[in-house]
Amino acid sequence: MKAEPTLNADVSAIIHKTGDDWARYWNSRQPEKLAQLYAEDAVYLPPHHPAVHGREAIREYLSRPLHHDYTDLKFEVTYVKQTGELAFDVGTYTMKVPKEGGGQKPDKGKYLTVWRKRQGGDWHIVADSWSSDLPHNQ
After folding, report:
1. Which residue, of 4, 58, 65, 77, has the fewest CB within 10 Å?
2. What is the C-alpha to C-alpha distance for residues 106 and 102, in angstroms, rounded to an integer?
3. What domain range is 45 assigned to?
């Protein structure tokens, strides 16, 4: 018999709230607060870019697009699963991104985030990956 991931309602609520915080910090251009949601040893896996290791490197990486008209980020959690001290959530996002020649265009995609429980009971991100559903050159 294999162990199936379960879900504690409190964990789901924490992850939903932290996802809302992530989008709020992004939309208000606060990379320092974004970085605090990550573990010191976290890895960020953006599309078309090598992995970014460590909280400080993630903060630096995330601060760059905040100056280039990436706005209106929203997450929709599809589901959250938990197994012991780890949890993960899968969902979708929408946002506006800069388009060549000026202005913005809509983007949408999906993400997978892995969380680890900290001492004291709160959770932080240990791995974060996302990709757009749109072709790379659009």
Report:
1. 4
2. 13
3. 9-131
Q: What CATH number should be reported for the domain holding residue 110?
A: 3.10.450.50
Whether the Cβ atoms of residue 90 and residue 4 lie closer than 8 Å to each other: no
Q: pLDDT digit string (tens) for 65-113?
A: 777 788 999 999 999 999 999 999 999 999 999 888 889 999 999 999 9
For the chain, the domain total comes to 1
Rounded to 5°, angle at Cα 126 from 124 and 130? 110
d(CA 112, CA 116): 14
Which residue reads 């993960």 in tokens?
A: 88
- Confirm whether 137 is domain-assigned: no
Considering the domain boundaries, does residue 4 fall inside one? no
Q: Which residues is 107 bridged to in the sheet?
A: 95
> Is residue 22 a contact partner of residue 42, using CB atoms and an 8 Å limit?
no
Domain for residue 34, yes or no?
yes
| Spatial CB neighbours of 36, under 8 Å, sequence gap ≥ 6 | 55
